């Protein structure tokens, strides 16, 4: 279902039916991280900010609690999950227009990624920072500021 939601949403179950199936699955085993992630994707599909945030946080909680993240990613353990949870939370808030919350979550992701020397996560954060800045400020102002800084430092 996650693959269908990503590649061809029309072939996936309807949002209501998919959520009903996920709720049944989670009733018997609430620690299935993948089910929480699919619930997150399904909630995004119907623009439900509360449910999508809830499911996203439960997804990362389950990754940390089950230790699945540390098994697949060496000795980093739950640190990787925490920084990507903050990054995904920033993306979620940005998607729903909560720019101040997105900025706070992005600052947290940057702080954790810097402490861990995770350059890949930092690059993702930089991309989201650019997107967030485009949403908050007029792009002409950013371009003007960038040109002025380049002139100041003698850059072409």
Automatic annotation (TrEMBL):
Keyword Cell cycle among record annotations: yes
Keywords (A to Z) from UniProt: Cell cycle, Cell division, Mitosis, Ubl conjugation pathway
GO biological process annotation, one example: anaphase-promoting complex-dependent catabolic process
Domain of life: Eukaryota
Domain Anaphase-promoting complex subunit residues, every copy: 36-135
GO cellular component, one term: anaphase-promoting complex
Pfam families, per the entry: ANAPC5
InterPro entries assigned to the protein according to its UniProt record, in alphabetical order: Apc5, Apc5_dom
Classification via PANTHER family: ANAPHASE-PROMOTING COMPLEX SUBUNIT 5
Protein family per UniProt: Belongs to the APC5 family.
Protein name from the UniProt record: Anaphase-promoting complex subunit 5
Species annotation: Tachuris rubrigastra
Gene: Anapc5
